[in-house]
Structures are given as C-alpha cells and as structure tokens.
Amino acid sequence: MPKTFVLDTNVLLHNPSSVFAFEKNQVVIPFAVIEEIDNQKRRQDEIGRNAREISRILDGLRNGSRLSDEVDLPTGGTLRIELNHLDVQGLPLGMDPEKSDNRILAVAHALNAEGRFPVVLVTKDLNLRIKADVLGIRAEDFYNDKVDYLQLYTGVAEKGLTAEEFDVFFRDKGLFVQDGAFYPNQFLVLRNGACPSQSALGRYRRREVRALRHADAVCFEVRARNKEQRFAFDLLLDDEVKVVTLVGNAGTGKTLLALAVGLEKVLEEGVYTRLLVTRPLVPMGDDLGYLPGSKEEKLRPWMQPIYDNLEYLLGNCADRGDIIRDYMSRDIVQMEALTYIRGRSIPNQFIICDEAQNLTPHMIKTLVTRIGEGSKIVFTGDPEQIDNPYLDASSNGLTYLVEKFKTEEIAGHVTLVKGERSRVAEIGARVL
C-alpha cells in the first residue's frame, strides 16, 4: 500500500532533492512550508540557496498542471501542495495557530484521520516528531542521506596470512589476494598465523596488498607517531589518490598531517601550484557577528587554527608570521571561505577542507565538483564535534562522503584513533 509522506520545511532546506526520495508514494507539502521557504530565499548562505533550489524544482514540476492537484514525479509517485487542513482546531487546546509547525502538524493529523493511506510526517525537528507521536502520527527523520556512524568505514582491516604468504609479502613487498573482499586503498594489518606476534602493514589495491611506500616519510619535520598516521601519510603523499578523508577525535593530527604534506607537495616537490585551505564558517556558541576589514582580516578568526598549525610546522623561526604572509602574498598558500568556492574550477592545487563534519552532503558535493585536473582534496573532521544545528554524526557531509567514496579507486580513508596533541587533549577527547 502506498504511503503519504508529509514533508516539513527543514527537510527541503536540508536537501532540495528530497521530494524525489520517496519512490512510488504520495508526497504532500503543506502550504505553510511554501511560506517558510519564501521567507528563507534571500539568505546568502546554504539555506537560502536550498530555498531557491526547491522553488525551482517545484516550478519545474508544474508542467501545465496545478501543484494543489497531484502531479507525477519521475520516481512513479505523486506530489501535491496541500491547501486544506491548515486549521489547528482538530489539535489539542493551547496550540498556537500562527506557528508554522502546528499548521504542518494539523495537515498530517487530518490526513491521518482520513485513513486513506498510512501517513508519515518527515521532519528533522525533534520536538515536532515528539508532538506528532503524542497525536498518534508516525514521524521520522529524513534518512535518505544518513549513514550508520557506529558502523562507519574506518579504512583499516586485519587479515591473517600463512607463514609462506607472510614471507612472500616481505620478500616481494606485495602479495596477491584471492578473496578480494576489501575496498580500494583499504589498509590491512597482516598477521602471521604461525607467529601471531609478527605483523606487517599494507594497502589493498587491484586485488593486491602492497607494502606502504610513504609511511616513514618526514614532511616539515613531522613524522607519523602511530600506525593510523602512517596510513594517513601513505594516502596524502600518493598523487594517484585524489580524494582523502581523515576522521578522528581532536588531537589525532588530522589537520597537521594534511598541512605538512600540502606544504611539502607545493613548496618542495612542486607537484601542485598552490595550497588552498577552506573550512565552514560555523561558530561554536554565540556568533561574533559582523567583522570589519578586508576579506583576509574577516577570515582570520575562523582560520586561526590553520595559522597555528602553520606556525608549528615552521618550527622555531622567529619570523614565522612573516613567512606565512610571504606565502600568502605570493599566492602559494590561500585561505578561502566556502562561500567563495561555488562556481570555481580549481586545477593543480592541493586542497584541504578542515572541519568538514559541519558541511551538509550537498555542500560536500558542491566542493568535490569544483576539483579540476591535477588537483587533490583532503577532508578532515570529527563527526562527534558538530556545531551545525541541522547535522549530526550520521547526517553530516563528511561521513556521507566516506561511505559513498569507499569503493572508488581514486579515494582513500583513515580513521585516526590515538591522540598525539598532548596527554590532556587525549584524555579529554576520550572521557569528556
């Protein structure tokens, strides 16, 4: 039996294409949702862009028909904008009729009372889901772009070898794997079955496990301190791997490793023409509000963690600040807000997107599709430290990218687990 899915505003603003995610079912958008979308369309951020995008999608679906009547969707389902049932009289006393959430809830309540089809209210608003449950209405989050964070791909697995296979791996620096049950660029901890205390590290690619090539590299005096950092170096320094994702708690070295390799590739090896660093401008706590000055001066507070890491990489130089300013004046290092990325094509650059857990899947797609020929992009972040109020560990763009790209030959992922910033930072990330 088909179902009726009533969509809340936040679902459409999170993913404008969500109207196409419900297969051969009825999609109902309350008129109050259209009003709320109209109120957001002038915003100069991702919410405003999505508001304008869903308006274009709905306008394209009209195709000579009225959206208040059912129009066909490419998925085989239907969509309509509901003009009726906006009165909250059927709801418990005391509910404000002027609140859009209550008017949306009234539509779902009335359709549910009609009993023609099972009704599901789809909303990312936790309180609205609670109110719907109290009224006997099934309510769900939008799961189409969610992943199971607890089962998130780590990029690392173990494999047992016979004594003969273990010897072959050490002799030839590689071993053919018959089962092939691993992902491209997945790292393997190889165990000698005859002597469990013996192990080796390798990377799987094209049905073969090869010894790590760059695990012992030193970039700007930074070297790996644990096996996960060795894995990260192996991916970051491999120019054939164009998309790298590094996930881990605070202090595990994600940003520092990426910056060290980026500087090495740009300044020492000359593989890329520029190191481009970007991060979402999402505050933790209250926003600072308007900041005066040039674009660089406005960005400085948001990019301060990047400056801190660059100063650390330059060691004990007394003129570290002058060196960084010289890099930026010569356009060797560029720091950019994601706001200015849209519409660009970025060739031959080493790109780092820090704090990527605060991006939506759509924003991740926007950034990845900007990558030009010869460029490499590295995403770093901690899905357990999200400041975007509309995202969580399962719905953010970083975890979405990890799962979607794990089967691609040009991508690699590592979850870093051991804190190396300080003992205080490691304990804080683990117990707080």
Written description of the protein model:
The protein folds into 2 domains: 4-140, 5'-nuclease (Rossmann fold, 3-Layer(aba) Sandwich); 217-431, Rossmann fold, CATH 3.40.50. Helix content is 34%, strand content 20%. The chain is built from 13 helices and 19 strands. The strands form 4 sheets. It has a 6-stranded mixed β-sheet with strand order 3-4-2-1-5-6. It has a 6-stranded parallel β-sheet with strand order 16-15-17-18-14-19, sandwiched between helices. Helix 2 (31-40) crosses helix 3 (46-62) and helix 2 (31-40) runs antiparallel to helix 4 (100-114). The longest helix has 19 residues, at 295-313. The radius of gyration is 25 Å and the shape is globular. The protein starts with a strand and ends with a helix.
Summarize the structure.
The longest helix has 19 residues, at 295-313.
